[in-house]
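seq as requested:
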Amino acid sequence: MKFVSRIAFSLLAMAGICPAAEIRVAAAASLAEAVTEIAAAYKEETGTKTTPVFAGSNVLARQIVEGAPLDVFLSADAATMEKLARENLVKKPVPLLTNALVVVVPADSQAMPAAAADLAHLKRIAIGDPAAVPAGVYAKAWLTKLGLWEKLETRFVGSENVRAALAAVESGDADTAIVYRTDAAVSKKVKVAWSVPEGEAPPILYPVAVCSATKQTEEAERFIAFLRSAKASEIFKARGFGLKSE
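struct tokens:
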């Protein structure tokens, strides 16, 4: 069988037909729906299979440090990307998307926080791990700026990524969660009680870069260019993301 496969491959090569390329894209958990949709559109347009790998940005960064075979990294924060860039593990990061924080509660909840101080009336607040997960880092910076972090600290339920924080509210394990606007939009089990005003929380930025260890630099760069195309921009905007170029 191996001999036959090699003959078939040689015949394809002689005919100028090469097997379709494949790239692996590490993307923050909050990008799951958008990147999955964009990967399908990219394959339809180019023939290249794109395999997304979703997790917290901190987890993906650790995988890159450990040598995981990844071609593109799309992080939910600039700090994580900049650390990899300093270590020469990614090439030329560029800003791509923006987002915003919201406070969500169960869809049938009567509790509707109308300001950050109202979180004190709720017992369990789910957030991404504030020591590592970008959404949690953003949430802690926001509440620290308002002088509320220490007052609320015992109420927080740390999660491995922002989608896990969302799931805690969906399952009833938390009364509320601080997540991205785009996460709230994908769930029918929660509702947005309050949106953090622009300028009150740190700017939320999603940069993208080619992983330095990739063996498919040109294809990775082509995919990043597609992420900035009209087609991909339409998908991102439909999912609630802002475009950095706007």
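The CA atoms of residues 71 and 216 lie 7 Å apart.
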